[in-house]
Design goal:
This protein has about 170 residues and is mostly helical. Helices cover about 50% and strands about 0% of the residues. It contains 7 helices and no strands. The relative contact order is 0.14.
Length: about 170
């Protein structure tokens, strides 16, 4: 259900972050007012914002890889290779839907959030094998150069560095 928290106001995310900080202190039996960042880092826990992004990107990856669930796969459209100046022919890029509503809730939907998060990933996470194109079907050839476990490991490492820059 982390994806439900996508695009929450900062004040709401801060409340969730305080709860996570308290839980981290409890896990390591740290004092109540100990700084939480080193504790979260030592536990290898992502901060709330990155955790939400991780879950949404992970769901997007699984949906693109397996075409399941169908109701989510119909919300995602792969941009044809070479359709943008900066787009790489070996990189999977999702089309962003046109904004049809001025309601903020629309921007929180999977349809809008998944392409935005996916397209902001580094190219090495969205790369296709050299022998296939993003428009090919998964039955013919793999869509991504990375395996499921490798993708998730590299994604978590990428988001961990965003949470805790060196």
């Amino acid at each position: 259900c982390n994806s439900l928290y996508s695009c929450l106001p900062k004040c709401q995310l801060d409340r969730l972050q305080r709860i996570q900080n308290c839980l981290a202190r409890t896990v390591v039996s740290a004092p109540k007012f100990a700084h939480a960042t080193p504790i979260l880092r030592s536990l290898h826990w992502l901060k709330i914002r990155q955790r939400i992004d991780y879950k949404l990107i992970s769901l997007t990856f699984k949906t693109l890889l397996s075409n399941q669930p169908v109701y989510l796969r119909t919300l995602l459209s792969i941009q044809p290779p070479g359709a943008t100046r900066s787009g790489s022919p070996t990189c999977v890029t999702l089309l962003r839907p046109p904004c049809t509503s001025s309601l903020k809730i629309t921007n929180r939907s999977f349809h809008h959030t998944a392409p935005r998060l996916w397209n902001n990933l580094p190219v090495y996470l969205r790369t296709t094998p050299a022998s296939s194109s993003p428009s090919s079907t998964p039955a013919c050839s793999p869509l991504f150069a990375l395996s499921n476990t490798t993708f998730h490991s590299k994604l978590k490492s990428y988001l961990f560095l965003k949470s805790y820059p060196p």
